[in-house]
Amino acid sequence: MRIVIVGAGVVGHSLVEQLGREQHDISLVEQSSSICEALSEKMDLLVVQGTGSSPDSLKQAGIDSADMVIAVTPNDEVNIVVCGLAEQFGVRKRIARVRNQEYSVPDTGIDVSRLGVTQVIQPERVVVDAVLQFIESPGALDAANFGHSNILLRGYKVLEDMPIASRSLQEISDMADPHPLLVVTIVRRGMAVIPTGNLVIEPNDEVFALFPMESLDSFLALVNQSRKSVKKVVVAGGSLTSVYLASALERTINNVVFVSSDYQEGIRAAEMFHNVEVMHGDCMEVDTLQEVHVEKADFFVSTGKTIENNIMSALLAKAEGAKEVISISNEPRYIKLFNSIGIDHVICPRLTTAREIMEVVRRGQIGSVIRIGEADIEVIRIVAGKRSKVVGKALQDVWKKIRVESLVGGIIRNDTMIIPHGSTVIEPGDDVIVITRSANKQVIQKLFTPK
Questions:
Q1: In Å, how far from its chain's centre is CA 178?
Q2: Taking Cα atoms as reference points, which of 440, 7, 379 lies closest to residue 182?
């Protein structure tokens, strides 16, 4: 696919790398001369120095022959203009990152599709979704959902008292019955493996399981957890993300506390909430954390505007007794460091935005790709093409012909998830979830692509 990317910040840079690996024809428009020079030296792609709102810059980048344009500059208006110009050049798919809710929220009366945008990506909403995935799965090492579907991937460290400890994968599947559930990866002593049914889970293993949303409670019971155990969440305000998050949480959590150091922001936020306690204070101060009884919080989420405040307030909350802390950081280089010093979960808005955009780009091809932790294993959701090699054949017959380590973890047919067996036959249009090593992704894609 021919794709023009406008903006080479963290999001744009990440997209260039990922799309380049998937053999797309990429060109880039970026205003900064130093960034253009660095990218030209590092990557084999067409880089145009200029503004995305300039038709001339877009022409130099090949907009008139592009299949898709992705506008991810820091400026909402520029991103919208890029899509409007792309529409006039005949580009079919036009994606814009838009932060201003006047453009991105349906009930404002502004229809950006009439301005040329076919898909809006709202970073704050994407971040809130990522936070909610952890809150609905207390104690998780990792949490991800397949795009906007109800298929979940959750990872937990196995403790001796968990029901799944010292059980085979087949036994675990039987324990979850009638709820479909499949363990797709195990990390044992630092080594990730794609398991078989007779493998036995050991304490200290990291187990990653795949299941539909309706199996979540059943799975959580197997790891001694429950969504109902989350009684209180403290949200440290200071951003649009914090307001969206508190609004989402009040629907399911009994005790949500919104803390803002900005008095006026707190007043405005209080007018939007129905069941949220709003407090004025600075979560960088221990007195404030004690006042909100953070020691009783199941989750503390720091969503301020600076990395320093988010990290420090999360560390203080952890020290004061919060069970789990989540911090927002726009600096992806430091995520591992922050995890190592006690932050349970670090969410990078720029990376989550890039992943959301990749979901859109891949639709109709590889629909979703979730990378498991630091392992070289990916969980891929891909549509079986009508005349592809896998259609109409039993899985055992297809899989014995390919010599790559992989596993079909699930089939989504008519909105129902099926845990497959060797005799299961894939039908045209099935959404198939495959677990494989990262290096095997292209092999898997060829199997599902029409001949």
A1: 28
A2: 379
Same fold yes or no, 2-121 and 376-448: no
Phi and psi based region of residue 415 (left: phi greater than 0; alpha: psi -120 to 50; beta: remaining): left
3-state secondary structure of 444: helix
Phi/psi for 315 (5° steps) reads -65, -40
Q: 255-301, pLDDT tens digit by residue?
A: 999 999 989 888 988 898 999 999 999 999 999 999 999 999 999 99
Tell me the DSSP string of 12-49: HHHHHHHHHHTT-EEEEEES-HHHHHHHHHHSSSEEEE
Stronger pLDDT, 404 or 445, i.e. the higher one: 445
CATH 3.40.190.10 corresponds to the domain 230-352 = no
Alpha-helical (H) ranges within 223-285 are 240-249, 263-272
Longest dimension (CA), the chain: 66
Superfamily of domain 376-448 in the CATH hierarchy: Regulator of K+ conductance, C-terminal domain (3.30.70.1450)
- Assigned token pair, 418: 């099926």
For 8, the token pair is: 């080479």
What ranges in 46-113 are assigned the alpha helix state H? 55-60, 76-88, 101-104
The answer as to CATH 3.40.50.720 being correct for domain 2-121 is: yes
- If one looks up domain 139-225 in CATH, what number appears? 3.30.70.1450
User: Kind and range of the H or E element at 443?
Assistant: helix 441-448
d(CA 451, CA 449): 6
In 237-384, the DSSP E strands lie at 255-260, 276-280, 299-302, 324-328, 345-347, 366-371, 377-383
pLDDT at 135 over 90: yes
Nearest-angstrom CA–CA distance, 232 and 426: 44
SS3 at position 399: helix
pLDDT digits (tens, 9 = 90+) for 214-235: 999 999 999 999 988 999 999 9
Cα–chain center distance at 285: 31
Length of the chain counted residue by residue: 451
Residue type, 102: E
Element (H, E) at 157: strand 151-157
Domain ranges across the chain: 2-121, 139-225, 230-352, 376-448
Residue spans of alpha helices (H) in 301-380: 307-319, 335-340, 349-362
